[in-house]
């Protein structure tokens, strides 16, 4: 019952270790934007399980604590940006509205937002097919309703930012799985951020995505390399991984032996999700404190079984037989390590022509199971996935 460890998708761990640099940088962004100083939006990249979603949540809390309006989106490859952006900015405006002295001005901005949202349906769509955004004000036409997402997003961001400026505050829009945005939406988002940075409007976008997200942004707008501040989120180093285990345990009157910490770091490789999974299993297996290396050895199969189902297996099941063959070849070539391999070596390993493997590779890229580390190379988006695959029969 007192087990403090919490492996879960996007669930904040009991100790957010090793992320002070990123949080301090965002604190500076909040201060600078509030003072009208120029500042770039932020993009977090990394493999799955390193805590990007947790960081987004922590940054959102920081923005809310200083009176900003905030909203969050999880991008989906099968959906355009207009509807989720409408919902996110509706939430941000509501955050600001409770302190804004002019209800009429708030209603004007909500009217612009409503006009933007209603363009999510084609103009000839039947009434029953039109999405109703739940904004109870008259539509304000002539702003953010052209139907061109790039024009509309710039105008909408400008309106919402001006509302925040009235309060000497800002707006932060958080976008998870940002690599899944459609190309037109990526282009519009970059254009809007560019426009706002030039006008020093108090609105920032904080995106999170897989390691190839910078390439996605750069392919859309060449200036995106200078538009965002990029932060690569990776494994915890040994000191931070130990602290993520020791601090929560000690608050519950328990601790880990040095040998147990050695074994846990070897098993988790410092990936935050795995640190929590192995820590939770070791706590449950240990009869007393300190938790020792034997407890970790007893607990490891349980942690690995849970990861095999919830973390690895759910992704593996989405792959077709041809895609699984491709994934296994990657694992065999990398010998289970979290390293990229060349597409040419995969073709040679499978005794196939590279062109015949392109459909499987492209499908795996769309499903987010692999990413292009650099031209001609491919890697898993999930740490330890190669090790998992080598332990699968066949």
From TrEMBL:
Pfam families linked: AAA_16
Protein origin, superkingdom: Bacteria
Organism annotation: Pseudonocardia thermophila
GO molecular function ontology, one term from the record: heme binding
Gene3D superfamilies to which the protein is assigned, alphabetical: P-loop containing nucleotide triphosphate hydrolases, Winged helix-like DNA-binding domain superfamily/Winged helix DNA-binding domain
Sorted UniProt keywords: Heme, Iron, Metal-binding
PROSITE patterns membership: CYTC (PS51007)
Protein's name in the database: AAA ATPase domain-containing protein
All residue ranges annotated as the Cytochrome c domain in the record: 165-331
